[in-house]
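Troubleshooting log. The previous structure file for this entry was overwritten by mistake, so regenerating from the original sequence record. Sequence copied from the archived sheet and checked twice against the printout by T.R.
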Amino acid sequence: MATTKKETKKKKILVSNGEGQVHIQATSNNTLVSLTDSQGNALAQSSAGALGNRGAKKSTPFVAQQVVETVLKNASNFGITKVGILVKGAGGGREAAIRAVGSFGLQILYIKDVSPIPHNGCRPPKARRL
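Regenerated output below.
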C-alpha cells in the first residue's frame, strides 16, 4: 500500500516588537532583497530573477522596486511596522530599492551601507624586470 504524506502548514511567526530589517544586495547583474526580524531570522526574500526577469533587465531600478514591493507585502503578515535598511553593493537598483521601502508606508529607523570595502586591498604583483 502506498502511504500518503500529510502536508503541514508552516506557522507564521509574528514579530513581537514590530521591528525588522530589509537587506538589499544590489549587484551589477541582479537585485536581492530579504526581510528579516531584528535577530536576523529570514521572513521573506525575493530577487529580480525570481520575478521572471532575464539578462540585463534584472539590474534595472524598476525591477528593484518591484522586488522590494513583493517582499514588503509579506511584512504586514508578520506584524512588521518599523524597518532598518541595510544596503550592500553598487548596482543600478540601489537607490530605487531604498525609495520603494520608503513609499511602502513602513517607518524607516535607519539606512546603513554594509558594502565590503578593502582596507589597503590585496598585495600588488611584484615589479616586472626587463
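The CA atoms of residues 49 and 58 lie 6 Å apart. Archived copy saved in two places this time.
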